[in-house]
């Protein structure tokens, strides 16, 4: 297959290479160049700007909205079907890779298997299985594993890894979804975090932590946690601690600035108020992270294929990173190159280069000049398969 007449966006060099062809073969990009041999089907891209497929790095595909309707006894079959619908929505929107961070019934592992086996179509899944948290903590109402003490956390971490997860998720503070919790409330001790990190390292992977506040983030960085989710309250000290261990922050700014989406999904008034009241501090915290040179990754904590005020949630999150001080280039890297690196897929995802997997999206104008180009994704390809084509005749 040839994708003809492309403006290829090079996110490594911050360049656009005009009027090129992409040759796709066996799920991968075989060549990128001018006037490639047309001995196979040709898609005329009509001068569209091509980018790597997007990542969304914070997904709870199994979550029920509003949260109070969660049924922890539901059949895993129902959970997986809910996850499949949301994953398919994300893929159609141009999000070709999803990282999950804790799913009821470990539905992400089943979904990943079905996609990889070819039974269903879906985005690439980097799965966490069930998250690990303290008894009665933040994940306790959503089917996560509840344990206490370093030994129990170590045992629980080994169990998740034995089931085939790609990374581990822990809950180290409170959050927005429980009325009685404070965002910065510590919920894990350093020794417990370190026990999970040690197991992850033994298996060549890393730990992601739900982390609302600075004190827990500093402790988590010292314990070896790699990925910090939310960072609603982030001081310079905490930002520097994350940067100092080459860690990342997944800001999920959408959580504190999506009142319309929350109302559409029947959230309770107190939840909406708690989320919105954190918005100003949250945005300033991520501005601190940008100023301190912390690497950010795009993740929504809203279903990746949903819309927020008429725009895909993942795209909206990329725009929020620009609001926080990221350049368009860096915001795009936060949805592509940086994500691939954390997922240990930097040699085959996040770039449009020969031998990389053919995950491709197309937009009408240069997103390096204006991120709003992403609001009109006209073409989606994953693994060399055309998922959606709205290029027109």
Please provide a brief summary of the model.
The chain is α/β, with parallel strands linked by helices. It has two domains: 2-52 and 350-389, Urease, subunit C, domain 1 (Roll); 131-342, Metal-dependent hydrolases (TIM Barrel, Alpha-Beta Barrel), CATH 3.20.20.
Give your account of this protein's structure.
The chain has 393 residues and is α/β, with parallel strands linked by helices. It folds into two domains: 2-52 and 350-389, Urease, subunit C, domain 1; 131-342, Metal-dependent hydrolases (TIM Barrel). It is 32% helix and 23% strand. It contains twelve helices and 20 strands. The protein has helices at 76-92, 107-117, 150-162, 190-202, 214-223, 236-244, 259-264, 269-277, 279-291, 313-323, 328-333, 337-342, and strands at residues 2-10, 15-25, 28-33, 42-44, 49-52, 54-59, 95-100, 124-126, 132-134, 145-147, 168-171, 207-211, 227-230, 248-250, 295-296, 307-308, 311-312, 360-363, 379-382, 385-389. Strands 1, 2, 3, 4, 5, 18, 19 and 20 form an eight-stranded mixed sheet that branches. A hairpin with a 2-residue loop joins strand 2 and strand 3 (28-33). Helix 3 packs parallel to helix 4, helix 4 (190-202) crosses helix 5 and helix 5 (214-223) packs parallel to helix 6. The longest helix is centred in the first third of the chain and has 17 residues, at 76-92. The chain is globular and about 60 Å long. The mean pLDDT is 96.
Kindly report the average pLDDT value: 96
* Secondary-structure arrangement, i.e. CATH architecture of the largest domain: Alpha-Beta Barrel
Main sheet: strands, sense, barrel: 8 strands, mixed
Proportion of residues in extended strands: 15-25%
* CATH topology heading of the largest domain: TIM Barrel
Helix content: 25-40%
Which outline best applies?
globular
The CATH superfamily of the largest domain is identified as Metal-dependent hydrolases
Number of helices: 12
User: Over all CA atoms, what is the radius of gyration?
Assistant: 20 Å
Strands, total number: 20
Unreliable stretches: none
The CATH C-level name of the largest domain is: Alpha Beta
- N- and C-termini, Cα separation: 18 Å
Helix-and-strand structural type: alpha/beta
């Amino acid at each position: 297959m040839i994708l003809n007449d492309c403006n290829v966006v090079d996110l490594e060099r911050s360049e656009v290479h005009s009027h090129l062809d992409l040759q796709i073969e066996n799920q991968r990009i075989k060549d990128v160049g001018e006037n490639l041999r047309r001995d196979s089907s040709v898609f005329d891209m009509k001068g569209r700007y091509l980018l790597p497929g997007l990542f969304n790095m914070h997904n709870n595909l199994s979550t029920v909205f509003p949260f109070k309707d969660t049924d922890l006894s539901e059949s895993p079959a129902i959970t997986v079907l809910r996850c499949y619908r949301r994953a398919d929505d994300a893929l159609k929107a141009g999000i070709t890779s999803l990282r999950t961070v804790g799913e009821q019934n470990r539905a992400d592992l089943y979904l990943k298997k079905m996609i990889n086996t070819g039974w269903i179509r879906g985005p690439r899944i980097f799965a966490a299985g069930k998250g690990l948290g303290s008894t009665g903590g933040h994940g306790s109402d959503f089917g996560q594993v509840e344990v206490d003490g370093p030994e129990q956390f170590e045992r629980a971490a080994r169990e998740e890894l034995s089931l085939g997860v790609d990374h581990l998720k822990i809950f180290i503070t409170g959050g927005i979804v429980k009325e009685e919790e404070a965002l910065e409330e510590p919920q894990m001790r350093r020794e417990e975090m370190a026990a999970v990190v040690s197991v992850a390292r033994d298996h060549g992977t890393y730990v992601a932590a739900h982390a609302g506040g600075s004190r827990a983030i500093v402790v988590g960085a010292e314990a070896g946690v790699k990925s910090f989710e939310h960072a609603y309250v982030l001081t310079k000290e905490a930002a520097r601690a994350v940067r100092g261990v080459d860690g990342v922050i997944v800001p999920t700014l959408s959580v504190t600035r999506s009142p319309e989406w929350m109302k559409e999904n029947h959230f309770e008034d107190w939840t909406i108020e708690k989320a919105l009241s954190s918005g100003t501090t949250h945005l300033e915290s991520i501005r601190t992270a940008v100023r301190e040179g912390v690497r950010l990754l795009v993740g929504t904590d809203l279903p990746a294929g949903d819309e927020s005020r008429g725009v895909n949630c993942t795209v909206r999150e990329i725009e929020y990173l620009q609001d926080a001080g990221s350049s368009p280039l860096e915001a795009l890297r936060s949805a592509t190159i940086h994500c691939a690196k954390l997922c240990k897929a930097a040699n085959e995802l996040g770039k449009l280069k020969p031998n990389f997997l053919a995950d491709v999206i197309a937009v009408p104008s240069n997103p390096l000049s204006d991120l709003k180009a992403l609001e009109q994704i006209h073409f989606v390809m994953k693994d060399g398969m055309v998922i959606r084509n709205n290029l027109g005749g």
